[in-house]
Structures are given as C-alpha cells and as structure tokens.
Amino acid sequence: MSGTRPQVGEVLARTAAILAVGLLLCLVALPLLSLLVKLPPAELWRRLREPMVLSALRLSAVTSLGATVAVVVLGLPVAFLLATKEFRGKRVIETMVELPIVLPPTVAGVGLLLAFGRSGLAGGALQALGITLPFTTLAVVVAQVFVSVPFFVSSAAAGFASVDRRYLDAAATLRAPPAYRFFRVSLPLALPSVLAGAAMSWARALGEFGATITFAGNLLGRTQTMPLAVYTALQTDVDAAVALSVLLVILSFTVLFGLRLAPWASIARIRR
Q1: Where does the chain show beta strands of DSSP type E?
Q2: Measured by CB atoms within 10 angstroms of the end CB, which terminus of the chain is less buried, N or C?
Q3: How many C-alpha atoms does 183 have within 13 Å on its Cβ side?
Q4: DSSP letters of 236-253?
Q5: Residue 13: CA count within 13 A, CB half-sphere
Q6: pLDDT at 264
Q7: How many Å from the N-terminal Cα to the C-terminal Cα in the chain?
Q8: Is 241 exposed, middle or buried (CB count within 10 Å of its CB: 0-12, 13-18, 19+)?
Q9: Is residue 141 packed enough to be buried (19+ CB in 10 Å), middle (13-18) or exposed (0-12)?
Q10: Per-residue DSSP letters for 105-139?
Q11: How many whole angstroms separate alpha carbon 244 and alpha carbon 241?
Q12: With contact defined as beta carbons under 8 Å apart, do 259 and 265 qualify?
C-alpha cells in the first residue's frame, strides 16, 4: 500500500501536468491556426498584394527598422552603464527603462502626446526648431522606440554583465583606452545578447499598436502600420485583416524561432 500511494500521486501529477500543457497549447495554438486556415494560399497571396497591405507593409518595415537602429544607438551605452557600474539611482533608472513593458500602450501614447505634442512639455521647443511630431511618420518611430527599448537594454545589459572581467583587466593592463576596451573586448563578447535584444526590439516595434494609434494616428501611407491596418480592415474587410494578421504571425514566428536556432542566440542563453 505504501508503494502504491506514491505511484498514484505520481500518475495524478503527470496527468495534471499533461492537461495543463495541452490546454495552454490549445489556448495559444488555436487562434493562430484559425488565422492560417481562414484563407486559401492563392487568396492570401492576392490579398497581400493589395495597395493598402503593401503600403502598411512598407511603412512598418521602414519605421520598425528605424526604431531598431535608434534603440541600439541609444540603448547600447545605457545597457553597458547599467551592467558595469554601480551608482546612486541605478535601480530607479532600471525601473524607468523597463516600465514600458508593463505600461498599457495607450497610456504610453497619451504620455508621448503630452510630452511631444504642440502644447506638451517639449512641444514648444520642438515647434521652435520646426519639428512637429504627433501624427507623423516620425511619431510612429518614436512610439516604437518607447515600447521596444526595454527588450534591447535588458538583453544587452545581461550580455555585458556576463563578460569575464579578466579580459577587461588584461586590456587595461596593456593601457588600452576605454573606447578600445568597449569596441574590441566588451562589445564582441556581449554581441550575441546584443543581437538577440535588437531582434526582439524589432519584433516588438513591428507589432506596436496602442501607443502608435494614440500618438501618431491611423493615416494611410503616413502612420498606418500593419497592426493599425489590421484594425482598420477588420471593420470593413475581414479577409484583408486576416491576410495582414497571417503575415505578422509569420514574421514574428520567424524572428522567435530564428533566435532559438541561431548559434549566437544559443551562446547568449548559455551565458545567462
């Protein structure tokens, strides 16, 4: 009897785990499968060549790539600082950088509007320079940078933190300047995590919706990215919305799956 009870408990635990995994997979997979089987391949291809879809695709490609470049340029020194230095207020900065992950996107859009709008905190200064942000393509990039920067900084900081200090000490002993130590020692060793963070930031920027529609609007050919085009098409043309959704699913899946297959991504996971 004493040997039977553990076996029964083990069977029940295994059954509960299988049920939980099955239910979770169904919850995630069924909506994606429903999108993929909704349209025949020929109809899907025809829909993807429609002017509205192509316009949204081009705009999303340009803005998401621009946002990713901005995130890398601005986030790289921040990630290095947070990973290698201890200073007063560090935890506050880390929290501020990561806040967009949990902040509702519409709240982010309202904040951007109040900060960079014509009557916003920085709006007057931008107006004096002849720069108008809200409801422009540049506003789309700004919104995408805001929501995607935490993914890059967190990943890059983890990469910099994993660099063996002995390599930096050896470079310092050889009197290598700080810039040389960063670009020739720290950055190459942390590159897998940096690339992984950049890829995740790009994927997040590509799928951004709430902050974009609040801060940049939904103007065809100007601010209407693919997620916004899905929202618009859903009200008048469900098949076009499905086609755009399938394209976004494929792109997102490719990025995530590629991160798990790429050798440099595997190295990044091992280091963490």
Answers
A1: none
A2: N
A3: 5
A4: H-HHHHHHHHHHHHHHHH
A5: 6
A6: 52
A7: 45
A8: buried
A9: buried
A10: HHHHHHHHHHHHSTTSTTHHHHHHTT---TTSHHH
A11: 5
A12: yes
Token representation of residue 127: 């107006």
- The residue type found at 269 is R
Q: Tell me the CA distances in angstroms from 205 to 124, 146, 241, 251, one per residue in order.
A: 27, 9, 19, 12
Question: Structure pTM?
Answer: 0.85
pLDDT digit string, tens, across residues 141-186: 999 999 999 999 999 999 999 888 887 778 778 777 888 888 888 8
Burial class for 192, CB neighbours closer than 10 Å (0-12, 13-18, 19+): buried
Q: From 55, 71, 26, 89, select the one nearest 194 (Cα to Cα).
A: 71
Contact 226, 247 (CB under 8 A): yes
Determine the residue type at 50: E
Q: CA 155 to CA 197: how far, in whole Å?
A: 5
Question: How wide is the angle at C-alpha 69 spanned by C-alphas 103 and 65, nearest 5°?
Answer: 85
Q: What is the mean pLDDT of the chain?
A: 87
Residue 240 has pLDDT above 70, yes or no: yes
